[in-house]
Amino acid sequence: MAIEVRIPTILRTYTDGAKAVPGSGDTLADLLVDLEARHPGVRARLVEENGELRRFVNVYLNDEDVRFTGGLTTKLDDGDTVTILPAVAGGSI
Amino acid sequence: MSQLPPLVEPATELTVDEVRRYSRHLIIPDVGMDGQKRLKNAKVLCVGAGGLGSPALMYLAAAGVGTLGIVEFDTVDESNLQRQIIHGQSDIGRSKAESARDSVKEINPYTEVVLHEERLEADNVMEIFGQYDLIVDGTDNFATRYLVNDACVLLNKPYVWGSIYRFDGQASVFWSEHGPCYRCLYPEPPPPGMVPSCAEGGVLGVLCASIGSIQVNEAIKLLMGIGEPLVGRLMIYDALEMTYRTVKVRKDPECAVCGKNPTVTELIDYEAFCGVVSEEAQEAALGSTITPRQLKEWFDAGENIDLIDVREPGEYEIVKIPGSRLIPKNEFLMGRALEDLPQNKRIVLNCKTGVRSAEVLAVLKSAGFADAVHVGGGVIGWVNQIEPEKPVY
To answer: Do B140 and A41 touch (CB under 8 A)?
Structure first.
């Protein structure tokens, strides 16, 4: 099952600079395992050690925030787009 | 989200001069005399007169907003001019607030400007925000963002937000009475060191205009009560692809500040909430920080050290400490760089100012490099103390 995963600038070091990579899985959790197999390290940037999604990284299934659609158990379909969007602050500290 | 009622009442009248000045607005049916009079009566606060604040203030002034407040305590630096177009060459070294006021007055003498030349803090934000109808945030750092958000929720003010990073921009309107707040979008800030700031990432100058103009567009719509506000939606702009996308932002019933059972009912310590340097990094740096002068002495004495610069390649190209080699911070965070480090040399780390090198130091210490140190003040400190003829950025 082909799903397009859109990678934010700050995580493209895991995808050799690619802005979007293909992935597969019946649920978001499956998709992240699939991504990790080809892009080691990326899953830990999205998921806490306790298995929950990190609270400063949002994941959207198409235009819906997965926090409101079942989190990691969210079901995925062929042709879906998953967008990863971490909180970013551009200004100086 | 459908149309909302206008945020401000119309002023009693426009003068003949004002009618001439705003004629291209007045002939738009959705604006008209009524909309322009509302702008005249509006009080808008812009937090920061920097990258986003520059175009925001200039367009808000040109549009005819009656009162513009500016929160800014910094001075104009040469490195600001690549994107902060409200300031010019002759303003270098001046107060940014005063420089911004002069530009605003030059664009529109009818706009009243109120300067707040102080850092926005929990103890002054309520008093300052209370004087305005709407807040435009142009500061773009986590501590200020959560402070502005919480104050806006507590005062029930619309918060027009924007963020920029390299070629990527985002914008939204947070207004808890009608939709989500920033904490509904991101309940917690990322831990320090996990997410870069533009100080290390850079920003395309014109991106400030792309996002700042969206912020002004949304502010004007709210003030006049026209169109569909960007409440409950997040605009995502990619300047390289030239695409705009929106995703939904839902009001979180569990939100700490605007949810059903809020736990944040007054302002908190935002520097502590967001952090700048992680606890691990602070601990690692304790007793393992050297000055640029000490580093120079170690070089001169022929000490057996390996100086590693953990910045990005583009930064390294601008200026570096002689004898350093580049391994960007991410290579350490991903664990790839550790196995190539020499065991028979003392590792010395540097970055721009000492924040990132402290984060990497924590990684090295936990990997067993007990005698590793980092350079406090980074390459900027080195240039200032040892090689003042080199450029800083």
So the answer is: no
